[in-house]
Amino acid sequence: MSMEGAAWGSLMQISRAKAGDGKISRETLKRIVRFAAPYRTRLLGFVLLSVVGAFLAVATPVLAGQVVNSIVAGTTPDVVIRLALLIAAVAVADAAVSLATRWFSSRIGESVILDLRTAVFDHVQKMPIAFFTRTRTGALVSRLNNDVIGAQQAFSGTLSGVVSNVVALVLTLIVMLGTSWQVTVLAMLLLPVFLLPARRMGGRLAALRREAANHNASMGTQMTERFSAPGATLVKLFGRPDAESHEFALRASRVRDIGVKMAMMQAVFVTALTLVSALALALVYGLGGYLALGGSLNTGDVVTLALLLTRLYAPLTSLANARVEIMSAVVSFERVFEILDLRPLIREKESPAPVPAGPLSVEFDNVRFAYPTADKVSLASLEEVAVLDTRGGEEVLHGVSFRVEPGQTVALVGTSGAGKSTIAQLLARLYDVDSGAVRFSGTDVRDISFAGIRQALGMVTQDGHLFHETIRANLLLANPEAGDEEVWDALRRARLEDMVRSLPDGLETMVGERGYRLSGGERQRMTIARLLLAQPRIVILDEATAALDSTSEAAVQAALGEALQGRTAVVIAHRLSTIRNADRILVIEGGRIAEQGTHSQLLERGGRYAELYNTQFAAEPAAEAAE
Ligand SMILES: Nc1ncnc2c1ncn2[C@@H]1O[C@H](COP(=O)(O)OP(=O)(O)OP(=O)(O)O)[C@@H](O)[C@H]1O
Ligand SMILES: [Mg+2]
Known about the structure:
This protein has helices at 3-16, 26-36, 40-73, 77-126, 129-134, 137-179, 181-189, 191-226, 229-238, 241-294, 299-309, 313-320, 322-340, 374-377, 380-383, 420-427, 450-456, 471-476, 484-493, 497-502, 520-534, 550-564, 576-581, 599-605, 608-617, 621-626; strands at residues 362-370, 395-404, 409-413, 435-440, 443-444, 457-460, 538-542, 568-572, 584-589, 592-597. With 627 residues, the protein is an alpha/beta fold. The strands form two sheets. A six-stranded mixed beta sheet has the order 6-7-8-3-9-10, sandwiched between helices. A four-stranded antiparallel beta sheet has the order 2-1-4-5, with helices on one face. β9 (584-589) and β10 (592-597) form a beta hairpin. The longest helix is centred in the middle third of the chain and has 54 residues, at 241-294. It is elongated, with a radius of gyration of 35 Å. The protein starts with a helix and ends with a helix. Magnesium ion binds next to α16. The site of adenosine-5'-triphosphate has 12 residues, from α16.
């Protein structure tokens, strides 16, 4: 390695460091060791190869010195040739060993990344909906990317750096001291002059790097939020594009400024390190040459010392900063562990009960419920707030009881914020009740496996989300085994067949981000088709409030009719047609059931329902026709 190459190498190591608080908990260390444990054979192989590599690296300067000594001593040519061949052999072996070392360290590092990533992904999947309603997606994704990579560097960067540097340094020093202690000591004198400012600069560089990462992250968040279909629509309708551009440019130019500053600091560092070792080299030549002339040192030894010196400074600088670097890797691990330690609020029972066979009834038994507070489900760092919001936890449902007989449809109506969607989410066990119980045919949902609930219950939510995939992939989510026949059947019953057949790519059409390439009504029918494909025994519909034109309305209505047929259904209804078709209507008011009965019973009573009916539906043409 050239002197400058070595300088860049050690710069990479020191600037990767982030500052830690200087304390590593034993607990964290134990967990890190546990993560590395499966790779101990490879780790051992790596350490052994590093030692071999260090020996090979020291061998060349020593052999070169011997060549010079042989020349000076005037030996036969075959000795010199043998030495040269040996140097060549060492070079080849060194190349092989360094490739193998790299293979081990990257293999270990990447495997640890894989383990950590999959562990975090699996764990986050288990988190309750409450977690996702609070977390900022960008923060979570960065945890999965940056911190996991930071943790990986602990293995492939820090660990390999420290091990190989220590071995190389010890060997080099031993050989140098053995060759000439006076020259070695003198050469080392310059080191502190360089090392002290270098350490401070390492800290500055790390701070800059962190700042740049923050600016990069906020640029990323702005882009992902604004460049999604709904976000871009919002900006076009209400946003201030100039202000957005300005804000973006501001962040981007900060990143540029930091980039320039970092490049300059790095250049200064590399130049300084190269300069200091070049000065040390001058000392070696000066003192070594003087001693050689006096006869107390061989000519070849001067060459050996000079060559070894170039290998001394870079590892020393790296090691001086190793502590900071290790700290930063540990901090990354801690941030990943923090997520793994979040206990999912909603857990499956050890030995869950099967879902009762046949048509299912649904029962709410005196259910009380408050949305969980932030400290139960979230991390401040993921919400991108300094402290967690401890408000909330106010009861939303105050003792709700009702029963839906198998095959019946119950409609929930009520003003906005009354608690209708909350009831739907409790039915699907997206949250757990605080007291009382939700039961399917007498079995508490908390006793049923997650897979059992998924298989028994299907839900169409208010916003009808689709993934950015093909129509087929979106539909098969509910039933991966379904064949084309069934998919087309579901589309037909959802009144979507003609539309999909008219598309050039048919089932392979990409629906666009969140399904934005479909109309509102089509998107809704797509989610209904997904439900039909899943064939759940319990159906929950959270009707979209958005008014549809009369053709879409009729199509959605027909699709809904298909979806509800013969199933136990809870429908949050905003359309009069859905309400009329229900077997029973529950009027939800402030988290309680205010009234219940059929449409005509409730109208006759002249209570809350009659009031709602008169204000919300009296204007609808369907209502007029019915009167
Ligand atoms: N994730 C949440 N965390 C905390 N409070 C919530 C959450 N979701 C809803 N709430 C609150 O719970 C109450 C009931 O909300 P819910 O969504 O059940 O109303 P809704 O009847 O479905 O209204 P809409 O007809 O507008 O959809 C509201 O006061 C709402 O602010
Ligand atoms: Mg709602």
